[in-house]
Write a structure and sequence with these properties.
about 40% helix, six-stranded parallel beta sheet, 9 helices, 12 strands, two-stranded parallel ribbon, alpha/beta, globular
């Protein structure tokens, strides 16, 4: 596909009001004309309307940051979850293939069952345990079946300054409650929306817009911050950092109670192991991902400023 008449590439972002979509509006802005669409402008649950939007704009790059992310609600709302997380990515992929566009799509650690002892690599067997995970895996499969040039980025434990997330919830509860109980037997790496957006922009710029498109290393990659922790460790770090910034808390961060998953049952099962091995991303694109604490501290600088 050729850039528009001004010679400027067009990059279309879906889910522009979500955590990652909001950051993509910033990170992609220097690369060309960004068409940032929220649900009102691009409803992924309506395939025909979605095709119409893509054919109107004819983007060089489609970045799909929209998703059905209500993990527990999805257990009883599978049709909606699959429409947005599975059918829509297939439509995006078909339209991208026809137009010669690059498709960037975000997936999740929930495609795995969480039973592996080591961090997951891209080639590990998938086995989603929730409707949400099943719908996201179906989206990956629909993209693969379309035969499009696509970058599928699996990530985990996403948090951004824009939108709701675990870090913001802990800050709120830390101000309101004398005690907190947080799960300590699920492992992952808190990954900021800004990191995901910045990595996306770097790959799109260097390897698609200014690289050799015919040799673009498409495929599935894991994108998560370095290191690992538990939800309990994450909560402790967030509240310790907030206290160090002078935020008044009712709870002592050192006194947060560590509890097992069994003590906090939810409709959708969570992976006990959400750790993602990112060596493939590093070796292919030369991108080094910072420790989760670094991103968390930068996130708190934004939230608490």
């Amino acid at each position: 596909m050729q850039p528009n008449s001004l010679g400027v590439p067009t990059l279309l972002v879906t889910g522009s009001n979500g955590q990652v979509g909001f950051e993509l509006r910033r990170s992609l802005a220097p690369l060309g004309r960004v068409i940032a669409l929220d649900r009102a402008g691009c409803d992924l649950s309506r395939p025909d309307a979605l095709r119409g939007v893509l054919r109107e704009w004819r983007p060089d790059v489609i970045v799909n940051a929209a998703a059905y992310t209500a993990v527990d609600k999805a257990e009883g709302d599978g049709d909606a979850a699959f429409a947005i997380n599975a059918v829509a990515p297939g439509v995006l992929a078909e339209e991208a293939r026809l137009a010669g566009s690059l498709l960037v799509h975000y997936s999740t650690d929930y495609v795995f069952d969480g039973c592996k002892q080591d961090p997951y690599v891209e080639a590990d067997a998938v086995n989603p345990q929730s409707v949400y995970g099943q719908s996201k895996l179906a989206g990956e499969q629909a993209i693969e079946a379309a035969g499009v040039t696509a970058l599928v980025l699996r990530t985990c434990w996403v948090a951004g300054a824009h939108g709701g997330n675990f870090a913001k919830t802990m800050l709120k509860l830390g101000r309101e409650r004398d005690t907190l109980r947080v799960i300590a037997d699920q492992f992952g790496a808190p990954t900021t929306a800004s990191l995901i957006a910045d990595v996306t922009a770097q790959i799109v710029s260097r390897h698609w817009l200014h690289g050799r498109r015919e040799s673009f290393p498409a495929g599935v990659y894991h994108l998560a911050a370095g290191g690992e922790t538990t939800w309990h460790g994450y909560a402790t770090e967030v509240l310790k950092s907030a206290a160090a910034r002078g935020i008044e808390l009712k709870v002592d961060p050192a006194s947060i109670e560590a509890i097992p998953t069994s003590a906090y049952p939810l409709p959708a099962p969570r992976p006990a192991n959400s750790r993602l091995d990112t060596r493939k991303l590093r070796e292919t694109f030369g991108i080094y991902l910072p420790d989760w604490r670094e991103g968390t501290h930068l996130l708190l600088d934004q939230i608490l400023s």
